[in-house]
Amino acid sequence: MDWMSPSSRPHSTLSQLGRTNHVTEFVPRMNNSPNTTLNNFSLSSSYASISPSAATFLSKKFEEPELQSTGKTTNLKIFIKINSIPKGAISVSQSPSHSSSPISHQEKLNSTNGGSVVPYQENVGGTTYFYQYPATTQEHNEETADTLQTPTSQSSSDYTPFPGKPEPSFFISEELKNDILNRNMLTLLQPDPAQYPDLPQEVDSYHELFPLEPISNQVLHKAHLGYQASMYKATHIKTGLHYCLRRIHGFRLQNTKCMSLVDLWKKLNHSNIVQLKEVFTTKAFGDNSMVFVYSYHPGSETLLNKHFSIDQPGYTDPFTNDKSTPMPYSYQKNNLLRHQQNNKLPEPLIWNYIIQLTSALRLIHSNALACRSLDPTKIILTSKNRLRLSCLAVMDVVLHDSNSAINHLALVHAYQQEDLTALGKLVLALACKSTIAVQRENITTALDVVSRTYTMDLRNLIMYLLTNQRRSVTDLMPMIGARFYTQLDNLHSHIEVLDTELSKEVQNGRLFRLMTKLASINERPEFNMETSWSETGDRYMLKLFRDFVFHQVNEDGQPWMDMAHIVQCLNKLDAGVPEKICLMSRDEQSILVVSYMELKHCLEQSFQEVSNTHELSVVDEKV
Ligand SMILES: Nc1ncnc2c1ncn2[C@@H]1O[C@H](COP(=O)(O)OP(=O)(O)OP(=O)(O)O)[C@@H](O)[C@H]1O
């Protein structure tokens, strides 16, 4: 239930839609050779655009802070005998035991170990287990688990995978609320026709197209696959659901054989991939375009945008770079190191990404498919570091080789090997906080930087992925080892927080339905040609009850607003408790003593009458 007044509703605009250029060499673009290895990856450029997720809100909460500051939460405890609770009615209880301050996993560890821990790891049957013992010496073991700190690594406290339990409140936490409102707002954004006059009204079964990035008119802007591509949010005409359309400009499908792969992709459903819904060709944009329809994840931004900014060392604009200017090697190395030291990502975050990426790759590879676009521009992030592969199936369609002589299984295996190499480069780039790190001439330096900063486990994983030997995504599982447990624990803790938040909203939804009933009876001007209906009998009691709940005044006649009183009264009404209250007439001449149980009966009866007469059986069912 949203307690915000309309005037305080958040508003935001799409900001930072500008594009920035980056040099990377991640995706083997225009290269569908099965023999591609680490050494013959093509150098090409990728581009980042800043997503609307930067939009933030300012919202004002009605009443809630006062409730907490005046300590009236204790008033909201309602003790109802079980036998007095009607079926479906639930009491709201705000217990002080709910209060807890967010404690990060690291803090928990430190508190149990007196702030000093020594890691110990053991490999059993290919799985690495991590243990911690209280420190007895000053010696530092470099091979630490992800939750532990190395002297050089960034404090894990800088990275909180998920926030702890929110402060006790009747309402959903401010952070979660803003996140949900932000996503809703982005989902409902409509394009300005003046700004995008060329946007078609309809494309196949979709309308309300909204560009997710500026549409470039530059001929040179053919970042992906050698074709210009654009992204749009769109609404399905029939279902009203929102989708993300990736349009490949000027592309003619030569052969429909690749559609069998599309069918395979459509079946893939995983929390770390953006699901493909359908693929079609269209002339709605005035050319031959190929459109890939994906699920829409509002507020997402690319990994490139999030972690690789243009101020990284050695950043060069691919179009303006003067190749004749020599760059000393030492300059490049020192620069890389300095940049990485100043901006390095916490190791647990990198492992978090590795777990999500390998999880997605595992499903893809086990379905005899290959991602082929493990590129920081093609991985999107939503809140809480949730990562998804966003460009699946495009390579398989756009670069489909229809030559029947080719052994497709062998081809897929080769692409899967390329995926693993791309993963190695991606992790290396994240660890060095620079896409320059994965350039062939920088890899040795970059690995050196990783060894100095992170655990050997991370370095070993990168080394494994960057070798030319035959690799498998399942081989990575023992390398990740006990970090899976940490990830699982974090996720479960987060689910618990969301569950608590959801239960609050279940209560609020129940009270909303109750108020809907009250509001449709109170002061109804006429019912069955009877103008006094709402002022007489049961309805009169409900009117006085409404005054009792919402129109209380203090001794000076000033409104006395107390959310605790309102919530308490409504809960008692919903439960139909036998407790009695005094309802005073507006002229203060008479007082009615009535129980909540009787009021509940009045409410049910009156609402039944209204619903039946006005054929609101559907509403009744829902309410
Ligand atoms: N499924 C999706 N739901 C919501 N937004 C998405 C989705 N996929 C991508 N986006 C957003 O669309 C924008 C453009 O994505 P795109 O994949 O084109 O990245 P890019 O950096 O512009 O790459 P390129 O240079 O190839 O165009 C990014 O801001 C990204 O966050």
UniProtKB/TrEMBL annotation:
Entry's family note: Belongs to the protein kinase superfamily. PAN3 family.
Localization, UniProt: Cytoplasm, P-body
Residues given in the record as ATP binding sites: R246, T377, K378
Composition bias, Polar residues: 146-159
Domain annotation Protein kinase: ranges: 217-485
Region (Disordered): 1-20, 90-118, 139-164
Keyword list, A-Z: ATP-binding, Coiled coil, Cytoplasm, mRNA processing, Nucleotide-binding
Any single Gene Ontology cellular-component annotation: PAN complex
GO molecular function, one term: ATP binding
Knob domain as annotated region, ranges: 521-623
Bias-annotated ranges (Low complexity): 90-104
Name of this chain's protein: PAN2-PAN3 deadenylation complex subunit PAN3
Description of its domains: The pseudokinase domain, the coiled-coil (CC), and C-terminal knob domain (CK) form a structural unit (PKC) that forms an extensive high-affinity interaction surface for PAN2. The N-terminal zinc finger binds to poly(A) RNA.
Coiled-coil regions, chain positions: 482-520
Subunit record text: Homodimer. Forms a heterotrimer with a catalytic subunit PAN2 to form the poly(A)-nuclease (PAN) deadenylation complex. Interacts (via PAM-2 motif) with poly(A)-binding protein (via PABC domain), conferring substrate specificity of the enzyme complex.
Coarse class of the protein's main subcellular location: cytoplasm
Keyword field contains Nucleotide-binding: yes
